[in-house]
Amino acid sequence: MKIKENLDSYLKYVSNWEEKIGSFLEFDISRTKGMSTVEGQLAGIPFGVKDNFAVEGFNITCGSKILEGVSAPYTATSVAKLQAAGAVVVGKTNLDAFGMGSSTDNSAFKITNNPWDTNRVAGGSSGGSAAAVAAGIVPFALGSDTGGSVRQPASFCGVYGLKPTYGVVSRYGLTAYASSLDVVGVVARTVEMTKTVFDTMKGQDIKDNTSVSHPGSRNNGDVKKIAVLKIEDGSLSDDVAKSYLESRKLLEKLGYDIVEIELPSLEYVVPVYYTIATAEASANLARYNGLRYGYRSKNGNDPGEIMQTSRDEGFGDEVKLRILLGTYVLRSGFQDQFYHKAQKIRTAIRNEFDKIFELADLIMMPVFPTAAFKHGSTDLDPFQQKVADRYTCAANLTGLPALAIPSSIENGLPVGVQFTAPAFEEDRLFNIAKVLEKDFPSPLAPGTKNWSII
Amino acid sequence: MKNSKTKAKYQTFIGLEVHIHLITESKVFCGCRNVFGSEPNTNVCPVCMGYPGVLPSLNEEAVKKAYQVAMALNCHLNEKAVFERKNYFYPDMPKNYQISQFEFPFGVDGYFDLELADGSTRKIRIHDVHLEEDAGKMIHEGSQSKLDYNRAGTPLLEIVTEPDLVTGEEAEAFVQQFRQMVRYLGVTDGNMEEGSLRCDANVSINEFGKGLGTKTECKNLNSSRFIKKALEYEIKRHTKVINSGDTIIQETRLWDESSSKTSSMRTKESSNDYRYFPEPDLPPYWPETKFLADIKESLVELPGIRKNRFIDEYGINQQQALFLTSEKSMADFFETVVEGDIEDKSLPGTVASWLSGNVQKILNNSGQGIEESSLSPRRLLSILNMIKKDKISTGIGKKVLGLVFEADKDPEDIVKNMGLDEGPDESEIFRIVSDIVDANPKVAEAIRDGADKQIGFFMGQVMKATSGKANPGKIQKLLREKILTGPEKN
After folding, report:
1. Quick one: which of A184, A216, A265, B455 has the most CB atoms within 10 Å?
2. Cβ(B156)–Cβ(B20) under 8 Å?
């Protein structure tokens, strides 16, 4: 059914699903008025934006009490480019505060449920974006991916999740968590939509000095040889292990040249990630002090005290944990032991990936060791959730592009698989995804449907 | 005892940290205007206010000016310059970290040739030159604290010297000469009252040969005179403390001008750990060879070098050269006038004495700089030409100069309109001279016989006949011609 001609039933559908999953922090369909008059490749297409992006006319809470009620005074470059191509922002999606988490349970405002099973998380930190797309509310949504925050929830919800090459999409307007790892990512229902959105957003931006122009693929995105990561027994849940094996068999059946590889440096990915990410976060989040905008504590007699109490009352526990950790690893006298060492290992990890790409066009590996877990700490406690980031963090540390692709349904829950490509080889990711999409398209969660747009 | 006690016993080490506000169109990491004195919080945007999601975008103009200063200070330019985050919480710091440079600043290991009071120079080593952003301003009014972020994100260049200065007087001279240099370069207006040039001073004393002592840092030094006074106070205080057997506490001290004392502000123990790390939002800066070559090419001649060239090239004295090169605008003015008539070898000296005398007197009274006054190089040259060609006397010339400043008119027009040039021309003077000499043959005869003083009689007569407008030199020259040639005609 078309949204435009059936706006009432669409809105009813949205509110029904929103009641179940809580994917949006703000939703305003009135913005789609006059949609058909806009021209462009994405004309009239509604989309959701993770609430750590600045979009004029909406709030920018980052899922944290410290930014409650703050309205964005400007629009992120990535969002502005999509708007210029005709797409319409209909709302801001829920997230783990400041992108810190794997469940979206670290949002200060609401719980987001997985459309496949509302007792389970949608993943995180871009859980709202993934859940909204999986529930059919929007055909695509923007997320941010610092350590897997787009790919893991996409995988949990059965949709596509792209983490582009670092610097290819401007970060201007994306609230920084860890600046050297953050990328603007896409969650979408189809490969084609993922690619269109990415192509629309990419390009150098004078407002982001770390952005680069995309040189295009060196080999037309051709994929012949795929390196498949060897998985130690017991590293994955049974469901994910089964799905992973099937993905490998499918690639063989489709005639790809498969080579099994090991990446010893993956052992170091999680500690390196949490050293660098928290160090950068400790500085990035220092600006939230209640003086210029956002939550201001009533407890405090001078500006210095007000900064302290506002931060104490405004930040959640996970954010405080990471700020403390980051402050710790940056202390003078300890940098060589932690931060500088982590940077060296980061380079070594990148070198290991580069070596693999001398003999293969892509690397296949799992996204996450489990399918969507239950709310709370019954399945995975916060520490286990961090350890489980090992497959996703590597792409952020190396800056390489990676795509999470739905691979199967196991016991009623979607499972995904991840492909990583050399820098700027997003086209290889789209090509393999298109081939696999014919075999297994993004599955519809029970009771959901795809709304056509125009 | 050969010397006074302190001189014999202790050695003093003074190092300076000088901050200059760079003159640029926009702030260092955003497009906001970089100006002083606007209404509070009017030159601000999401970037310099530290809103979520913003990123710094490096201002190339600020980078160029930073390199100019680094080059002028003979620094080694790092192949790669890296911005770093300096982390500390303060209400006027929008991001609660300052983007600065630490391990790889633009320039390191330079020197500055400091001219000492006795005319000799000494190399003061420069530790580094680094670019950073300024913070906003917090103003306390009664029980309220108000924040103005106009200054937040404006480009600040910090120059750190090694502890090579030894007296408060030297430190004062350094700041004055350094200020002159950066004003020459045109990178800052160097206004200490408005805070475009700020200076902190580190000082320590120790027994000779024992190296650096425990230092204290002096802040709130808003003029070069305060720097001298504060350092002299601190050196005395250190000496007294050490002589009494106590130790100096490493701390930051605030200069209070009204009491002429420093007082403790904070000790090292409570100081910050800035947790520097490379700014991930700005890639390392790799200056291209051509970029640096172009900056080097565009570097202006620095005051010390220009002064020596003025002495050599124009044959003017040390005093005049020092005066002319004290401000770039004055030196430029001088050279433009001189270039107006390169044939005239006496012109540089004349221009130098006019500028340092008559012109400067007027400028001092009005408080103007020469570049903002109504005297242009062409106007001064035209006054000097009129004097040279005897169109006007030197005295009239001075009068015309004053009128140029007052009325903002060309000297030729002033002279014409006020009838200042209506003195007799040479043939007219010669006619008058001839008449008078012919009427007094005995006096002429006496002069020819050696009574030279009697020429004064003729001078008086001619001056009277020309109502004082004729040039005395010219009259005398014509008189002598007439008197000498007189008898032959008979």
Report:
1. A184
2. yes
User: Which tokens in the block code for residue B33?
Assistant: 């205007």
Nearest CA in chain A to B29: A207
Interface A-B, measured as beta-carbon pairs within 8 A, has a size of 111
Which residues from A are below 8 Å from B57, CB to CB? 206-209
What whole-number distance in Å separates Cα of residue B265 and Cα of residue A10? 65
A282, A326 contact by CB (below 8 A): yes
A180/B282 touch (CB, cutoff 8 Å), yes or no: no
Q: What is the pLDDT of residue B2?
A: 43
Residue B487 sits at the chain A interface (C-beta within 8 Å): no
- Mean per-residue pLDDT for B252-274? 84
Q: What CATH number does residue A267 fall under? A: 3.90.1300.10
Given a contact cutoff of 8 angstroms between Cβ atoms, the answer to whether B213 and B248 are in contact is yes
Number of structural domains (chain A) is 1
- pLDDT at position B265, please? 84
A301 at interface of B, judged by CB pairs closer than 8 A: no
Mutation pick from B26, B45, B55, B92 vs chain A, by most beta carbons of A within 10 Å, is B55
Tokens of A384: 């286990």
ω into B196 cis (within 30 of 0) = no
B residues 343..372 contacting A (CB < 8 A): none
Neighbours of A203 (CB within 10 A): 16
Q: Is A122 helix (H, G, I), strand (E, B) or coil?
A: coil
> pLDDT tens for residues A254-283?
999 999 999 999 999 999 999 999 999 999
Average pLDDT, chain A: 95
Domain over B426-489 is classified CATH 3.30.559.10: no
| A417-447 tens-digit pLDDT | 999 999 999 999 999 999 999 999 999 999 9
Which amino acid is present at B379? R
Helices (H), B135-185: 168-185
For residue B159, give Cα distances in angstroms to B74, B273, B305, B369, B479: 12, 21, 21, 27, 66
In whole angstroms, what separates CA B5 from the centre of its chain?
37
Tell whether B53 lies on the interface with A, counting CB pairs under 8 A: yes
**Under an 8 A CB cutoff, do B94 and A287 touch?**
yes
Q: Computed from CA positions of residues B111, B112, B113, B116, in that sequence, does the dihedral angle turn out positive or negative?
A: negative
Q: Is A334 on the interface with B (CB under 8 A)?
A: no
Q: What is the 3-state secondary structure (H, E, C) of B78-96?
A: CCCECEEEEECCCCCCCCC
Q: List the structure tokens of A158.
A: 């059965």
pLDDT of residue A29: 82
User: Which domain covers residue A122, as residue numbers?
Assistant: 1-454
Residues of chain B with CATH 1.10.10.410: 426-489
Cβ–Cβ of B53/A172 closer than 8 Å?
yes
Contact A49/B at CB under 8 A? no
Amino acid identity of A261? I
**Which of A179, A286, A292 is nearest residue B87 as measured by Cβ atoms?**
A286
CA distances in angstroms from A32 to A61, A135, B72, listed in the order given: 23, 19, 59
How far separated are the first and last CA of chain A, in Å rounded?
Answer: 9
Q: Which residues contact B33 (CB under 8 A, 6 or more apart)?
A: B25, B26, B27, B43
Q: Taking the CB of residue B183, how many other CB atoms lie within 10 A of it? A: 20
Provide CB contacts within 8 A for B330, sequence distance 6+: B323, B324, B355, B370
A418 in Cβ contact with A151 (< 8 Å): yes
* DSSP result, A235-254: SS-HHHHHHHHHHHHHHHHT
The interface residues of chain A toward chain B in range 249-288, judged by CB-CB distance below 8 A, are 279-280, 282-283, 286-288
Asked if A239 and A371 count as a contact pair (C-beta separation under 8 A), the reply is: yes
